[in-house]
Amino acid sequence: MKNWYQETEEDILENLHVTKDGHTPEAAAELLESKGENVLEAGKRKSTLQVFLSQFADLLVIILIIAAVISAFTGSEESTIVIIAVIILNAILGTVQHKKAEKSLDSLKSLSSPSAKVIRGGQKIEIASKDVVPGDILLLEAGDLVVADGRVLNGYSLQVNESSLTGESTSVDKSEGLIEGEVPLAERSNMVYSSSLVTYGRGVVVVTGTGMDTEIGKIASLMNATKEKKTPLQVSLDEFSSKLAMVIMVICAVVFALSLYRRMPVLDAMMFAVALAVAAIPEALSSIVTIVQAMGTQKMAKEHAIIKELKAVESLGCVSVICSDKTGTLTQNKMTVQNIYIDGKVIAPEEMDIKNQLHRYLLYDAILTNDSTIVDGKGIGDPTEFALVEMARKIDLPDIAIRDMMPRMEEIPFDSDRKLMTTKYRLHGIPTLLTKGALDVLLDRTTRIRTSEGVREMTEADREEILEQNLHFSENGLRVLAFAYREAEKDETLSLASEDNYIFLGLISMIDPPRVESAEAVADAKRAGIRPIMITGDHKITATAIARQIGIFEEGDMAVTGPELDAMSDEELDKAIAKISVYARVSPENKIRIVDAWQRRGNVVSMTGDGVNDAPALKKADIGVAMGITGTEVSKDAASMILTDDNFATIIKAVANGRNVYRNIKNAIGFLLSGNMAGILSVLYTSLMALPVPFAPVHLLFINLLTDSLPAIAIGMEPAEKDLLSEKPRNPKEGILTKQFMGTILVQGALIAAVTMTAFYMGLSQGNSALASTMAFATLTAARLFHGFNCRSKHSIFKIGFSGNWYSLAAFAAGILFLNLVLFVPILKRLFIVSTLTLGQIGTIYLLALIPTILIQISKIIREH
């Protein structure tokens, strides 16, 4: 892409084959045909059918389909229907989630303005923004959305807000003329860019880039090239699923071979293998994980964090780095007057006194050399200017009344070359020039100073003191404006030559202050083992000052600008990254590189942003967090989470919630797998001992899908423990199925299997295999229901109590009700192949079922003490 900002106007017009009268309609039509419309291209997408079919490309799903086919051949239609229904439901859920994620580029397209004003053939006309072509002469005025990249030919006090591209909250002055040397996008004062907003003045621009050739087009390309990452839980579950699938296939093959070796009929041998497959595969697992995540998202929504993708909930639990934008997230996104230097001392804005003539002159200068106002509490105009108006209102200075009382006589508008704005008013009956601007410019034009003792000549000591105070303000991240005045000469008309021989009044410093809760949230993040990083489009000094105030930047840390980062190799960045706490003046590519560098170190990275420029990095990060109030639609669609209050503290609350969701999911998985382990061990035992099949596949599906689902969901509703944020983030590379976790599942599964087989033998002792199967099924179901209380926490039930999670009691009661309906209602008895039981047998079943829970609770109590 050409560096248009380094070319002369004549060269640009010649390169684009256009004059200041614009293209002829015929030339514009030809260009539109060859260059294409001024829109953003989407990447190639899968059709809905392709997405749906891809959901079946999973080994566990394939095993379940094979089990369903075998069930159909062996006459178990109920099992077939239930298995197929579960598979299809999961595929539909996966497809819906995928299609939602494709909205990011659609939002980028919708950013285009519906129309644009251009000059073609010397005539001013209005056209659709998609019809704008390179070389078009674009006319811009306050309120217009810039629809293409362009070079400024004429600027009349032109100011553009580029925050959606650069991250800088204040408007940028734009003017004609070339810039020499390489400069970052935020400092290209002779260029305007697609998706930015004209906030002040007007301009004439020649279009240099449209569609995918714009800066926003680069971002669209980056989004197409950025692949979404799987969450740690997805990786862990995928790993678990593939291992489990291999184990199931091997065991099923062994059981099938053993059954044939014992001369069992082929269909019966298949039934054994199907029973084992159904017992081993936790059919409800993906649904339970989805439901628990959904419950977590509802809780987060109440706390101002909207989770767009369910999978993002658990990723929050292992976030170890949060890359946060400064403006609006860590700060209030509102310029505020901080301190005033007047009469040789620094005072707070509230200390200004309208009765003091020196103070009054400075206040008049601040509100009269100012084109902003506040309507219904909302600032209109330049944020720096309406901060001055707000300061006046805080001390009950009626800015509107003063402006009405003293009409502006003349003005020289602000421009970025002079860095001054001058107005002429009649103060106390005397025509007076009031000027505000950059101190370095204004001080050179100042000869006198006003103090409480009157006006006197400015000394070198005065200058040094003013410059020292300005430096002190700047080092603390404050933006400084200088104010001066002089009485006009008789019949003097304002000109650039008038801006001289001033009387110095004072300095007003401003800042976008940190949010009150930011420092506490940063401290909470560090306590939780999370590294907060500030990434901003603002100046390094301002960013570092804010970062230091809220605790992100500490002694020994580094602050780096975008160009400095570009100069670093990946190896240099990897060495320095642990020390860099602040990145200033960054580009979209810089943000992706920062996220990538942290991810290379094995960190799970959260990235916040609100602009179009943030979208690729939001997508690249493990958790992209968009701002709900100030965020663009693009950033919201690219993100996994949206903050409805744009507050950094909300991210920390969401992290705590994410950790709790992950812990609950892990406990629910432990519950499901230990119960399934009991079923596997029971089927394996009967196969090895040449006993009848202990369960029909429909028994195991009843347990897995009905009685197990409710306790698993209840475990997912367990409230967070108090010390959750005192723990370090979990290692994302550590899978769910650690040796300790698998050991616990095996022991608990063996205990439940032991009581299940005891009940099975009791049934067989009465010479009835159907009764034995019923007693085994009922004992396994009840034991797994009791086991739900064990899996709520690592602590004993006496420590956490029953009342902390009423859902677990309700789930247990519902499960017992379902079991008794199957055991006693005739039609259900036939459907689920159960025999009639005596009261004594039912009592034995419940007693046996309770034994594993008693033993597990005793071991927890011993461990606690």
Task: For this entry, give a set of tags.
865 residues; single chain; alpha+beta; elongated
Report the sheet with the most strands, covering strand number, pairing sense and barrel closure: 9 strands, mixed
Beta percentage is 15-25%
- Estimate the global geometry from the Cα principal axes: elongated
**How many DSSP helices?**
33
Helix content: 40-55%
Mean pLDDT: 85
Distance between the termini: 69 Å
Q: Helix/strand-derived class?
A: alpha+beta
Using DSSP, what is the number of strands?
26
Radius of gyration: 36 Å
Low-confidence runs of at least 5 consecutive residues: 107-113
Short synopsis of the structure:
The chain is an alpha+beta fold and 865 residues long.
Q: Describe it for me?
A:
The protein has 33 helices and 26 strands. By secondary structure, the chain is an alpha+beta fold. α28 runs antiparallel to α33 (839-864). The radius of gyration is 36 Å and the shape is elongated. Residues 107-113 have low confidence and may be disordered.
Q: How is this fold's topology laid out?
A:
Layout: H1 9-15, H2 25-35, H3 48-54, H4 59-73, H5 77-100, H6 103-110, E1 116-120, E2 123-127, E3 137-141, E4 149-161, H7 163-166, E5 172-173, E6 191-192, E7 197-209, H8 215-225, H9 232-261, H10 266-280, H11 285-302, E8 305-307, H12 312-316, E9 321-325, E10 336-342, E11 345-347, H13 357-368, E12 373-375, E13 378-380, H14 383-394, H15 399-405, E14 410-415, E15 420-427, E16 430-437, H16 439-444, E17 446-451, E18 454-457, H17 460-475, E19 479-487, E20 502-511, H18 518-527, E21 531-535, H19 540-550, E22 558-561, H20 562-567, H21 570-576, E23 580-584, H22 588-600, E24 605-609, H23 615-620, E25 623-627, H24 633-638, E26 641-643, H25 648-688, H26 697-707, H27 709-716, H28 739-764, H29 769-790, H30 797-800, H31 806-824, H32 826-831, H33 839-864
Parallel strand pairs: 9-21, 9-24, 17-20, 21-23, 22-23, 24-25, 25-26
Antiparallel strand pairs: 1-2, 1-3, 3-7, 4-5, 4-6, 4-7, 8-26, 10-11, 10-20, 12-13, 14-15, 15-16, 16-19, 17-18, 19-20
